[in-house]
């Protein structure tokens, strides 16, 4: 029921919430996964540090606030949508439509799958997007992708952005730095490497004609404690670039 109602992004997460003592029916704590309740029962998840389907929403909400961006009535592409934390934030803040793109499957939270404003493209690499999947220009691209450098995963999605549109992407140094720069457990701790990879992504966007609004540390760390960064940028006011115009200049992790 937690998953069906969008209170947990997966059965595993639902079980974890129950075992942590955070799920209540009225004032009664639910202490066992699999307990049966009436279909119209009121379930409540208490003690969460955010209102979205995943903690990823904390990152995007922070970025939108940091740059002062309003997404009311925006059409967006969410690259690496996963459970849908970014998509959830966009909808909460008034986006008209979100194309949720992910190479995985069955990850997007059920409440988002059922939302008519969400167009789900699963088992699809963002590098292979065409007008068949994105049939309209978009106002915004957001990205929280793993195991690939931003210059590779965003080259195609950025071609769908309207002149003057925006990008808000998460820079993950462990996927931008060279293999020899990534430490034990896939963690990049050297601030100099953080600075270099952020500068490289900014330079790549500038080379495409985008205007970088800034780079800001994410308010929460990634897996294993990796420090991540949010980069905001504005598309050229002239016609959008084609895929062939987008160079792949950032380094990639294996």
Number of strands: 10
Structural class: alpha/beta
Overall geometric form? globular
* Strand content range: 15-25%
Number of helices: 7
Rg from alpha-carbon coordinates:
19 Å
Task: Indicate the percent of residues in helices.
Answer: 10-25%
Indicate the CATH topology of the largest domain: Rossmann fold
The tally of domains stands at 2
Q: Looking at this structure, what is the CATH superfamily of the largest domain?
A: Vaccinia Virus protein VP39
Explained architecture:
By secondary structure, this protein is α/β, with parallel strands linked by helices. The chain has 2 domains: 11-45, no CATH class; 56-245, Vaccinia Virus protein VP39 (Rossmann fold, 3-Layer(aba) Sandwich), CATH 3.40.50. Helices cover 23% and strands 20% of the residues. The chain has helices at 11-19, 56-67, 85-92, 110-113, 150-153, 173-176, 191-207; strands at 23-25, 28-29, 43-45, 75-79, 97-101, 118-121, 138-143, 161-171, 211-217, 229-234. β7 (138-143), α5 and β8 form a beta-alpha-beta unit.
Brief summary:
With 254 residues, the protein is an alpha/beta fold.
Give a topology summary.
Elements: H1 11-19, E1 23-25, E2 28-29, E3 43-45, H2 56-67, E4 75-79, H3 85-92, E5 97-101, H4 110-113, E6 118-121, E7 138-143, H5 150-153, E8 161-171, H6 173-176, H7 191-207, E9 211-217, E10 229-234
Parallel strand pairs: 4-5, 4-7, 5-6, 7-8
Antiparallel strand pairs: 1-2, 1-3, 8-10, 9-10
Keywords:
10 strands; Rossmann fold; alpha/beta; 2 domains; globular; 3-stranded antiparallel β-sheet; 7-stranded mixed β-sheet; 254 residues
């Amino acid at each position: 029921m937690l998953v069906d109602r969008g209170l947990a992004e997966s059965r595993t997460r639902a079980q974890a919430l129950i075992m942590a003592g955070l799920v209540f029916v009225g004032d009664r704590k639910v202490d066992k996964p699999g307990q049966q309740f009436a279909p119209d029962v009121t379930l409540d998840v208490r003690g969460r540090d955010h209102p979205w389907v995943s903690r990823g929403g904390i990152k995007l909400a922070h970025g939108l606030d940091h740059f002062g961006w309003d997404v009311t009535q925006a059409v967006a592409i969410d690259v690496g949508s996963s459970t849908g934390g970014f998509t959830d934030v966009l909808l909460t803040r008034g986006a008209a439509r979100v194309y949720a793109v992910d190479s995985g499957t069955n990850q997007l939270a059920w409440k988002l799958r059922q939302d008519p404003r969400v167009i789900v493209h699963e088992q699809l690499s963002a590098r292979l997007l065409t007008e068949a999947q994105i049939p309209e220009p978009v106002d915004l691209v957001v990205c929280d992708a793993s195991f690939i450098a931003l210059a590779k995963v965003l080259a195609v999605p950025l071609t769908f952005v309207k002149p003057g549109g925006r990008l808000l992407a998460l820079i993950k140094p462990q996927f931008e730095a060279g293999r020899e720069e990534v430490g034990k457990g896939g963690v990049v701790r050297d601030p100099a490497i953080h600075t270099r990879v952020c500068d490289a992504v900014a330079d790549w966007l500038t080379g495409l004609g985008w205007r970088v609004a800034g780079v800001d540390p994410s308010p929460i760390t990634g897996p294993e404690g990796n420090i991540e960064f949010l980069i905001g940028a504005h598309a050229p006011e002239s016609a959008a670039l084609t895929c062939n115009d987008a160079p792949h200049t950032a380094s990639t992790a294996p």
